[in-house]
């Protein structure tokens, strides 16, 4: 049994998904795509916009090279109603297994929910024996890593995008409904005032 150390360093040139203000991005990673409880998350960086630094190390336990072939990476915008996907990527772990000492520092392309390449995420990845603490390997050169679109991963991201849009519509409807209600209330008071006059 092994663990996978994922140090999430930074993301650059991200898609801007905010209609007002700047992205509040965080990154989440997992060895499985379809279990929300397995994702490890970085801190949210408020108003970071399109370029963000986390420099945060996450550890994924129970890494089994024969079963886990991809690292699923999501960069999301923290939101009150529903978090919006900014970018995602599936990173083949074979490139880490082949790297010297099974340690790799790489910049990986991210993709929008629609499948367009937009932005990058920089990660330090290390395969460790189970129970070993995190490693720091100075002098590892950052290289261009391979990332891809996994169809099931993209399906989940698109589903998140639909939920986020629905939440935005519901919130907008609530705001408009509240404004119309307030206008009707004010109009009613004006009518009463005219009657009294």
From TrEMBL:
Looking up InterPro entries in the UniProt record yields: C2_dom, C2_domain_sf, Synaptotagmin_plant
Q: Which GO terms describe its molecular function?
A: lipid binding
* GO cellular component terms given for this protein: endoplasmic reticulum
> Mind telling me which SUPFAM superfamilies this protein's record contains?
C2 domain (Calcium/lipid-binding domain, CaLB)
Return the CDD domains for the record: C2
Q: Which SMART domains match?
A: C2
The lineage's top-level taxon is Eukaryota
Q: Which Pfam families match?
A: C2 (PF00168)
Start and end of every C2 domain?
Answer: 1-108
Query: What name has this protein been given in UniProt?
Result: C2 domain-containing protein
């Amino acid at each position: 049994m092994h663990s996978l150390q994922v140090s999430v360093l930074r993301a650059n040139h991200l898609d801007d998904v905010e209609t007002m203000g700047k992205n509040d991005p965080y990154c989440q990673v997992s060895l499985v795509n379809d279990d929300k409880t397995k994702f490890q998350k970085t801190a949210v960086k408020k108003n970071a916009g399109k370029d963000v630094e986390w420099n945060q190390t996450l550890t994924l336990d129970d890494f089994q090279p024969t079963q886990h072939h991809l690292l699923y990476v999501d960069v999301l915008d923290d939101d009150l109603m529903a978090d919006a996907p900014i970018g995602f990527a599936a990173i083949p772990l074979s490139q880490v297994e082949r790297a010297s000492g099974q340690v790799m520092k790489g910049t990986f392309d991210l993709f929008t929910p629609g499948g367009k390449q937009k932005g990058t995420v920089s990660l330090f990845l290390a395969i460790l024996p189970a129970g070993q603490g995190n490693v720091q390997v100075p002098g590892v050169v950052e290289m261009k890593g391979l990332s891809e679109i996994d169809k099931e991963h993209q399906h989940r991201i698109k589903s998140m995008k639909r939920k986020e849009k629905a939440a935005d519509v519901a919130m907008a409807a609530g705001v408009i409904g509240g404004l119309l209600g307030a206008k009707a209330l004010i109009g009613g008071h004006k009518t009463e005032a005219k009657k009294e006059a």
